[in-house]
Specification:
CATH class of the largest domain: Mainly Alpha
Shape: globular
Strand content: under 5%
Radius of gyration: 25 Å
Order of helices and strands: HHHHHHHHHHHHHHHHHHEHEHEHEHEHEH
Largest sheet: 6 strands, parallel
CATH architecture of the largest domain: Up-down Bundle
Strand order of the largest sheet: 3-2-1-4-5-6
Amino acid sequence: MEFTLLLIAFIFGFACKLINMPPLIGYLIAGFVLNALGYESNSTLDTIANLGITIMLFTIGLKLNIKDLAKSEICLGSVVHSSVWIALITAIFTAFIALSVPFFSGLSYEQAALIAFALSFSSTVCVVKILEESGENKTRHGKVAIGILVMQDIFAVLFLVVATGKIPSIYALLLFLLIPLVPFLRKLIEEVGHGELLPLCGLTFALGAYFLFDLVGIKGDLGALIMGVLLAPSSKSSELSKSLLTFKDLFLIGFFLTIGLSAMPTLEMTVIAILLALLLPLKYLMFFFVFTRAKLRVRTAYLSSLVMSNYSEFGLIVIAVAVSANMLSSDWLVIVAQAVSISFVVTSLFYRKSHQQYARLKDRLKRFQSSSVLKEDQHPCMSKAEVLVIGMGRVGKGAFSALTSSLGDTVWGMDADERRVKQLLEVSPNTIMGDGENIDFWESIDFSNIKLVLLALPSIDDSSNITAQLRNAEYTGKIAAIARYEDEVAPLLSSGVDKVFNFFTDAGLGFAEESISLLSERNASKNK
């Protein structure tokens, strides 16, 4: 049976990839197809799904700066959005009750508010998956979206504590003892090396935190998130997160399948689910209004709002708890599960073209931008730059160092990760923070002196998008990019990149050239 589940998940996931749709849409469809074929979820699949969510929250924590949650656009923004959404959607549901809409006609006002609360959450799984696939989890809009998600997860945990009446044990106070252990845990991560012990260490920490928090009556997923946050300052947190990526992606397939396997809907339920999905534009508009009022740049507000315009797996959990407590009919679990699935599809499809959409709409959207922007959103100055390296990971830093030694201060580096930029600024002042896919960024800075741009990015989609933004901003210099695989070279060249370096082939070539130079030096010394 497990093989059948994997086979059908692969078939539909691969089919979606062939038509340039995210594989997660295929996994959702596979779940409903399996349901129609008579398959049901089982304890093994549920365990896999839960593992996927736990590891995902742990990796989110590894990339999270706790100070970000205290920012007004995150803390206040999440509270305002949730409050206004619940009030407005409850009013709409009240109108549905008055009109005797099926499944609404028997609801009380309290039940309507409960469903509105469940729909107020955005999907951590869907949003993080989309941001990671597009390489935008560390961009300004990506960090805003993740910060809001963490706040919403906290709201959900608080609700579950109240709804289930499961008060944390007095022993929960002992969890504070983890804080003095953090330096030891970080040191342990740094000592395990780069092999198979690193992901094993990460799994141990994630699942161990889940077990500890669950043991004292606190939701275990919150424990995995907090453990990730505590370990985030480690120098190997980024490498640890990447080492868990495959495990997380595989286990999350189980989560998407369980949504489709949760129940078999009727036609009437599907119509109501579609009706709920039609409220998603309202969710987008409310996020956009909140973010622009918080003085975020309009592009950040647009992209954050768009990726957050979906319903959440936590909403399903809230509804499931309500059903088990006889607060709602079990029909609502099926309806909300369908609405969540539809919202995943909608977000995945619309976000794929989000940068192109913004380029077309930016002049109209900028009317909503605040006259003053936050300090961290002010665009930098790099008028003296002649060479710009975008993406300051291992490859980018290596290229930046090599070019700086030859060309001096005319070489600048740029990255969208604020933490990475702060670390690099301690070494070189010629490092700025910026999102290369941001057309507003290129239109607001002076890059007339830049003759060469190096795109040291792992995603060819990112490199292609940045190339398009540069050309749209009338950049006439040369663009070089890296490719990890041979089949990525042609798409990059067709997008406008002038030169593509195959990461592995050219690394070997560079290694050979350096080795030959050493041999030449040795022969020269002998001749002397």
